[in-house]
TrEMBL record:
UniProt xrefs under PANTHER family: PROTEIN RHSA-RELATED, PTHR32305
Protein known as: YD repeat protein
Protein species of origin: mine drainage metagenome
Length: 149
């Protein structure tokens, strides 16, 4: 789990810590926080994504929240940082558009991933990630080498 603290005047605010739960592709799937009313920790928001990263925000009980609800954290789809103003994800070297399903700038490594320098994870977002915005990676590919030793 990843965590986020809220600071005020250089001091961590009591019971303000949020934990992000992630899946195998680094998608943030839930945020766990402290409920001051009940005095307990629990899921405060859940997130689901389309294959190319369009986010759906859900309540802790999987119901749909009221419109206009914003995510509690910025690091969401594949661990990328969402800019709520533009709707683009930032991934160290480039910005990604979930509505287009592509990067919005060319790959600085040029044709390392093929002829399309804007293509996102070789059009296979369910099985691959691109943690730097440069070269796609399939987390399951290490299975190809099991038994090779």
């Amino acid at each position: 789990a990843v965590l986020q603290d809220t600071y005020s005047a250089g001091v961590i605010q009591p019971n303000s810590r949020l934990y992000f739960e992630q899946d195998a592709n680094w998608d943030t799937t839930a945020v766990v926080g402290f409920n001051a009313t009940s005095g307990t920790w629990g899921v405060t928001q859940r997130y689901t994504y389309s294959p190319y990263g369009t986010i759906s925000i859900l309540n802790a009980d999987w119901s749909t929240p009221s419109s206009g609800t914003q995510p509690l954290v910025d690091n969401l789809y594949q661990g990328m940082t969402l800019d709520p103003v533009t709707g683009l994800y930032y991934e160290r070297n480039r910005n990604y558009s979930p509505s287009l399903g592509t990067w919005i700038s060319q790959d600085s490594l040029q044709y390392i991933n093929g002829a399309n320098t804007y293509q996102f994870v070789m059009s296979n977002p369910v099985n691959a990630t691109d943690p730097l915005g440069l070269v796609w990676w399939n987390p399951l590919s290490w299975f190809d080498y099991v038994g090779a030793w």
